[in-house]
Structures are given as structure tokens and as C-alpha cells.
């Protein structure tokens, strides 16, 4: 199987985002490093604006994720509501 991943800086702003990603992708695997969190998933990983907003209790613009984004792997499909990383079958 092919693994997709997203790597974010470790800071207070990304903690709820990471929590939301893990909530929406229960089989994802977290690799925590001193200044980075890499989240790996088989074939597909979804980041949903709605889940982040539920956790933070405030509005969230998915474009602002790029401030803390280190890298990602996979094909990217992005809307105002979600970011989806995937590998085509």
C-alpha cells in the first residue's frame, strides 16, 4: 500500500489541527519529532475545516494551515471545506 502524509510544525496552533486530523482519520499513525508532527495514512488522509472548528470553537480558514505546513505527500485535492491527500488506485 502507498502511504500519504502531512507534516506540521509542533506548536500551540497545530495541536487542535492534529487532534482534528486524527479524529477524522482514525487509522492514521503519528510520528512525533521535537519540532514536527508527521501524520501517515494508508492511501488517503483528510483534513476537515468543520472538525477543526468544532475542536477550537472558532472559525478556521484551511488556507492558514500552510503557515505551519512543512511538507506533504500524495495527490492534493483542496476546497474551502477540506484538504484531501490520496494516491490513485
Summarize this, please?
The protein has 89 residues and is α+β, with helices and mostly antiparallel strands. Helices cover 20% and strands 42% of the residues. A four-stranded antiparallel beta sheet has the order 2-3-1-5, with helices on one face. It has a three-stranded antiparallel beta sheet with strand order 4-7-6.
Structural summary, described in words:
Helix 1 (15-24) packs across helix 2. The protein contains 2 helices and 7 strands. With 89 residues, the protein is an alpha+beta fold. The model has no long low-confidence stretch (mean pLDDT 95). Strand 2 and strand 3 form a beta hairpin. The longest helix has 10 residues, at 15-24. 20% of the residues lie in helices and 42% in strands. It has helices at residues 15-24, 49-56, and strands at residues 3-9, 29-32, 36-42, 44-48, 69-73, 75-78, 82-86. The radius of gyration is 12 Å and the shape is globular. The strands form 2 sheets. The chain has a 4-stranded antiparallel sheet, covered by helices on one side. InterPro entries: MOase_MmoB_DmpM, mOase_MmoB_DmpM_sf. Pfam families: MmoB_DmpM (PF02406).
Rough outline? globular
Separate helix tally: 2
> Into which percentage range does the β-strand content fall?
35-45%
How do the SSEs run, as a string of H and E? EHEEEHEEE
Number of strands: 7
> Radius of gyration over alpha carbons?
12 Å
Poorly predicted ranges (pLDDT <50, ≥5 residues)? Answer: none
Tell me about the biggest sheet? 4 strands, antiparallel
Structural class: alpha+beta
Provide mean pLDDT, rounded: 95
Strand arrangement within the widest β-sheet reads 2-3-1-5
Give the termini distance in whole angstroms.
Answer: 10 Å
Work out the helicity level.
Answer: 10-25%
Amino acid at each position: 500500500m502507498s502511504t500519504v502524509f502531512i507534516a506540521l510544525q509542533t506548536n500551540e496552533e497545530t495541536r487542535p489541527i492534529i487532534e482534528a486530523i486524527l479524529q477524522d482519520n482514525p487509522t492514521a499513525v503519528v510520528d512525533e519529532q521535537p519540532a514536527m508532527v508527521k501524520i501517515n495514512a494508508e492511501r488517503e488522509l483528510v483534513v476537515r475545516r468543520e472538525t477543526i472548528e468544532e475542536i477550537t470553537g472558532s472559525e478556521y480558514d484551511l488556507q492558514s494551515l500552510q503557515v505551519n505546513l512543512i511538507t506533504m505527500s500524495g495527490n492534493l485535492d483542496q476546497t474551502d471545506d477540506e484538504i484531501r491527500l490520496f494516491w490513485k488506485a
